[in-house]
TrEMBL record:
Name listed for the protein in its UniProt record: Mitochondrial import inner membrane translocase subunit TIM16
Protein keywords: Membrane, Mitochondrion, Mitochondrion inner membrane, Protein transport, Translocation, Transport
GO BP terms in the entry: protein import into mitochondrial matrix
Organism of provenance: Absidia glauca (Pin mould)
Tagged with keyword Membrane: yes
Gene from which this protein is expressed: ABSGL_03030.1 scaffold 4097
Length: 146
């Protein structure tokens, strides 16, 4: 009698676990089909790259803006000024918080990564534009000589 009960419990648990794995697989397949995250970054989409930066740093650009009290379009001077003020205000030797000081450093790093990525993309576009211009100039025939 006890073997029958154990068998029923094993079958019931197996069914529940199987359904859970199936549901998780369906969700993972739907996410992959939607093309989020790594797939978008691999395609070179700006959102995918920025999402990758967010995952890498653990901080979104919006969060970095809030921590440093700047706008996304802030110039480097304002960013540096706010960074230095917040870093010095949270100096542990002055009774500040190491945690907050670390957040300030990570926020500045996030901005720097964002700017580096934007510069990299603009240089790639410029290079592509130069290559396109060079190809159109090469394809034109030289003027006839007199």
């Amino acid at each position: 009698m006890s073997a029958r009960i154990i068998a029923q419990v094993v079958v019931s648990v197996g069914t529940v676990v199987g359904r859970a794995f199936f549901a998780a697989y369906k969700q993972a397949a739907a996410n992959a089909a939607a093309g989020g995250g790594v797939a978008a970054a691999a395609r070179g989409g700006k959102e995918g790259v920025m999402d990758a930066l967010t995952r890498k740093t653990g901080m979104s650009l919006e969060e970095a803006c809030q921590i440093l009290n700047v706008q996304k379009e802030a110039d480097l001077a304002q960013l540096t000024k706010n960074y230095e003020h917040l870093f010095n205000a949270n100096e542990t030797s002055k009774g500040g918080s190491f945690y907050l000081q670390s957040k300030v450093v990570r926020a500045k790093e996030r901005f720097e990564m964002e700017r580096a990525e934007e510069l990299k993309q603009s240089q790639a576009k410029e290079q592509e534009r130069n290559n396109t211009t060079a190809n159109t100039n090469d394809s034109q025939s030289p003027p006839p000589s007199a």
